[in-house]
Amino acid sequence: MKRYTLVANWKIQLPLNESVSWISNHKKELINLGNQCELIICPETIAIAPIHALLDSKKIFVGAQNCSKFLTGAFTGEISVHSLVDAGVTHCIVGHYERRHYFHETDEEIAQKCLNLATVGIIPILCIGALTNEHSLSETLEKQLHHLKSFWVPQRQLYIAYEPPTAIEGDQPAPLSQIIAVEQSIREYLSPAQIQFLYGGSVNSDNAASILAIPGVDGILLGRASLDFQNLKKIVSSLPKAS
Length: 243
Ligand code: PGA
Prior knowledge:
alpha/beta; eight-stranded parallel β-barrel; 17% strand; globular; binds 2-phosphoglycolic acid
């Protein structure tokens, strides 16, 4: 049976103390959710190490929301992939629309971050998405993957999250037909790389099951819906059972 991936992107919505109490309040139930899916909690960077220590479980993964494009050196304020490994990180979101838009990250820098992560054994969750019409969508997304494709080897694990910018923090996910079309064209473009394909943007407990029922979709990336534990639990219980 397919094991779906659920990525909880907490952004900076829960400060350190709240993040840690969220985990300690729901620890037992969380581990139970981790038996039903691959659950990756991505808190603010400063909360990663205490949450990892608190969970002390192989059932729940702790992810990061960003990393430096530099491996090491004199780069004040950056977070290296080496420190993420030491803190217990197994996955890292890269190239989220908010990073591209507010922090002007380029496709080249994002590809470099993916490579740094792969070097230390962290799985990149590479976000792609574009403000464009359906006709040119695949072309634009392929442009975002172009740098990565030139050096990515199939042995490296890679998650791709398709997140249309208009759906992020919006009220409507992309139409299912669009998710299907993007999933197929991205797999084809990146072949022979083995990718886990995720969808993100306005996913909630009402629409998660229909998105996950698409055969090529391996998981979802959740923003707002991951902040409320009951909501998260509802989403896990709605995962398609037999696939
Ligand atoms: P949302 O955010 O689920 O709140 O729309 C998704 C994201 O930013 O990845």
